[in-house]
Amino acid sequence: LAVDQWNRKGGVLGRQIELVVRDDKYSSAGAVTAGRELAGMGINLMVGASQSPMALGLAPLLADMNAVCVAPTPSAMSLTHENFTRNFFRLCPNASMLYGGLARILVEKNPEVSNWATIVFDSEYGHDAVRYFEHGIRQAAGDREISFEDPIYVPVNKTDFRVEINQLMNSKAEGLYLGVIAAPAISFLQQARSVGLNRKLKVMGEA
Fold first, then answer.
1. Where does residue 182 rank: exposed (0-12), middle (13-18), buried (19+ CB within 10 A)?
2. How far is residue 44's CA from residue 23's CA, in Å, rounded to a whole number?
3. Mean pLDDT by 10 residues, the chain (207 residues)
4. How many CB atoms are located within 10 Å of the residue 137 CB?
């Protein structure tokens, strides 16, 4: 839609825009392959790398490919910090804004909750989410006593959460950040409800 709109108005700097699409196969290797193929065709503006693995694979190569990538990847804070490159632009809220912001809202609405647990994917996204969620909780709590259970990290394709739910049931957690998404989140919530985790917790925030 955007390309059609630009081209009807004369394109960019008087040149028509052509959209060339490649599949990154939702993997770091796929993003690198797609990026190299596009660069080899003389294409140097890329939009994509929407998740951390693809962005982390592609970003270091952009300068050598004489290319720029604009990516809607919220996590992998290293992309704009220790792994910064002038050729990569994040075009969305980052982990601090998303998970730190969620944490502050949860504390403001539930000031009585003093012990928090997290369950997230074992990925850079997951580790960033825990880091900034806990930071947001501490900031919002101020001088109040706050404690955290050890983060629970799970594979991205996990569907059986009985062990992790049992761990949460036996913990002191009153609040939970659920950082698994899509089908794993549905599985987690169904299994959690069946054993009463939703009744044990005072509040739950999810990704």
1. exposed
2. 16
3. 95 93 91 96 92 88 95 78 89 89 97 97 91 97 96 94 98 97 94 96 94
4. 26
